[in-house]
Structure formats: structure tokens, C-alpha cells
Amino acid sequence: AQSVTQPDIHITVSEGASLELRCNYSYGATPYLFWYVQSPGQGLQLLLKYFSGDTLVQGIKGFEAEFKRSQSSFNLRKPSVHWSDAAEYFCAVGANNAGNMLTFGGGTRLMVKP
Amino acid sequence: NAGVTQTPKFQVLKTGQSMTLQCAQDMNHNSMYWYRQDPGMGLRLIYYSASEGTTDKGEVPNGYNVSRLNKREFSLRLESAAPSQTSVYFCASSEGPFGRNEQFFGPGTRLTVL
After folding, report:
1. Cβ of B19 under 8 Å from any chain A Cβ?
2. How far off is chain A from B20, nearest CA to CA, in Å?
3. How far is B64 from chain A (nearest CA, A)?
4. According to the model, what pLDDT value does residue B4 have?
5. pLDDT above 70 for A100
6. Residue A48's closest chain B neighbor by CA?
């Protein structure tokens, strides 16, 4: 069975600073990887996904993530954080056969200082 | 397109009461899911329906039942609510049941069991 670890429960960055959120996964084959964002009181919105091909994927709102197979990681990055990026971020892994649904990490709450 | 809608948004129950959470999607998706979200634990799958007419248990099904009423609607029932079921419940849908399919989430139902 797959698993996802997000080592940082909380992260605080200053507005305009760069951001990296860590995600490590465990899965026997090539995984499908996702990053979702959840604003307060809202549902989850997909930021980006990786299935295959180029290991650097671009998403919405200026986010990108890099798949590193050797490190079993899929870290999310943004070069310059905006106050509106304050939210909770979830990394998820999906298996490639029916019956194995998305497995989510515990989430990282991002706070942005003015 | 409303996407995925959930009712109610908030609910308070007493221990032992029953209730049904409703979910509907207008994207003609085949697969639907119910998750619960608890602090620090990400989202955990309760039940899913890979296609109309089928339902299967997820990671945490105890204390819940589901009904896939038709292709659009997927309800979650708590027969005898317990305080441990206090959580935020999210419904999601996707085109297919595989891990590669993006899941679209509803806004959530915040349930408190006293």
C-alpha cells in the first residue's frame, strides 16, 4: 500500500520569499502524484499533478513541483509567495489500478508574514 | 456547472442520532468518494463508488454506510453517531476510479457529535 509523508506541519514565510513544501511517498511502482491546496473553510483544489515524462511540472498560481524518483520525493515550490497563498497544502499519491484510491499526506499549513 | 455540492454545510448531532450527508456532482463523472478530514491526518477515504451501482470500503468505513443513488448522487449515512465521528466530511468525484484521475472536491460538511 502507498503512503505519503509531509514532514512539516506548519511553515511560516515572509511575503515575497521563496517556498518549498516537502513531500515523500512510498509506492512500489511509478506513482501518480498530486498537490492540492485547501483555503480556510473550502474544499480542495488541484494545484498540479505528475503522471510521467518531464519531472518538473508546472501548476496553477505559479506553483511547480519536481519528481525525484531516487529520493521518493515530490516537493512543491514557488519562487515568490503572496499573502493569498496562506492555506493548507496536501500531497497525495494515486496507484495505477482500480481499487487503490488517493492517499493523502497529513498536510502542511502555510502562514505568510507581511 | 456547480461541480460537487454537499448538504448540509454544518450539522450538530447528539450521540446515537442518525443522519445522511448528501452529495451531488454535475460533471457526469463515473466515480465518487467520501473522505473525512481530521487535524494532522489529511483526508482518509471512507467509501467510494467506482461506477454507478457499485460501492466499496475505503480506509475507515466503520460506522458508515453509503448509497450510490444514481450517477449524480452519492450519500453517506451515519446510523448511530458517535463523538469519534466529529470531523469534516468531503465528497469528491472523478471521471474514473483509477489513481491517475483527478478528483474534484465539494466544500465539505462540518459535523459535530456531542
Report:
1. no
2. 19
3. 18
4. 95
5. no
6. B102
Closest-CA residue in chain B for A95?
A: B99
Nearest-CA distance from B17 to chain A in Å?
25
Q: Note the pLDDT of residue A30.
A: 75
By the 8 A CB rule, do B4 and B92 touch? Answer: yes
Q: Is B107 on the interface with A (CB under 8 A)?
A: yes
**Cα(B80)–Cα(B17) distance, integer angstroms:** 5
CA-only gyration radius of chain A, Å: 14
Please state, rounded to an integer, the average pLDDT across all residues of chain B. 93
Structure confidence by residue, pLDDT tens digits, A52-80: 888 999 999 999 999 999 999 999 999 99
Return the exposure string of B104-113: e unless at least 16 CB atoms fall within 10 Å of the residue's CB, then b. Answer: bbbbbbbbeb
Q: Which position has the higher pLDDT, B92 or A95? A: B92
Count of CB atoms situated within 10 Å of the CB of B48 = 26
Least confident of A40-44, A76-80, A85-89, B98-102: B98-102
- How distant, in Å, are the alpha carbons of A99, B21, B36 from that of B54? 12, 18, 20
Q: Take residue B65 and report the three cell numbers written for it.
A: 454506510
